[in-house]
Design goal:
Two copies of one chain form a homodimer.
Chain A (H helix, E strand, L loop, with lengths): L3 H12 L2 H10 L4 E2 H8 L3 H13 L3 E6 L2 E6 L5 H16 L1 H11 L11
Antiparallel strand pairs in A: 1-3, 2-3
The structure holds a DNA duplex (30 and 30 nucleotides).
Chain lengths: 118, 118
DNA sequence: GTTGAATATTCTAATGCAAGAATATTCAAA
DNA sequence: TTTGAATATTCTTGCATTAGAATATTCAAC
């Protein structure tokens, strides 16, 4: 079993990488499949996949498999610490072009998981 | 110059280690010299010194030299992200015995920097 | 069955810390 | 000028993580 402070450290380990922050920023909007994330981030597929796996391993994300696609979402009942930092991330997204561009690219594609992925 | 998101990543890098969290928890109480930190944490001196240097290097702490002693304090005008997480740390300190014990040991020593260090 | 899209994993090399032991530096006081 | 306390640095070793390239897996559709 993991202590509370160990859990917080795990959250911070996930947050201390720009690539992972960019993913969390997109998932704040709602669940997304891997290929949409990859397109919005303009990053190579193995890189995104490994960042997602890292955050799943640390309990920040969960995923569900829909035949060929994997839908990622923020874990339910998050550590309050994570919730607070996702709010901070929202503020950050308003001020940093990297996050804005990710959101803009995401808005440009059809991200309804119901008809993933054309 | 450092972008805003890089600055946030630097903050998270500092927060993702339990030893550094314990130091920040103590410095929330006010400035402290290295030897008091070392006593309150019950950790070897080089370890504490390196953790302090790490956080100085990332802009979270500043230090002033008073002859033989170095007084560490939280940096002024902190990143709002850091301020928010120090609040979270306060909540965490109520719930995790590690932080409580640090505070208890700190309370047991005279920490007035004016008569450092007897 | 074969193809192709989506995703995951493996391998390698490089990096960044981390701990611990030892040593260096600084400076007041004896 | 030597001593000792406080602090910083260096060195080594090991671990965790990262990127990139390549490959493997899964599964629907043809």
């Amino acid at each position: 079993m993991e202590t509370l402070s160990e859990n917080c450290v795990a959250v911070y380990k996930c947050l201390c990488d720009l690539g992972r922050l960019r993913i969390l920023n997109l998932l704040r909007q709602g669940p997304l499949c891997g290929c949409h994330l990859q397109v919005a981030l303009e990053e190579p597929q193995p890189k995104v996949s490994k960042q997602l796996a890292y955050m799943k391993r640390h309990g920040l994300l969960v995923s569900t498999r829909r035949t060929n696609w994997t839908i990622f979402r923020l874990a339910e009942g998050m550590n309050p610490l994570l919730e607070e930092n996702l709010k901070c991330l929202q503020d950050l997204a308003f001020q940093d072009p990297v996050f804005q561009q990710d959101l803009a690219r995401l808005a440009g594609i059809n991200t309804d998981p119901a008809d993933c992925c054309d």
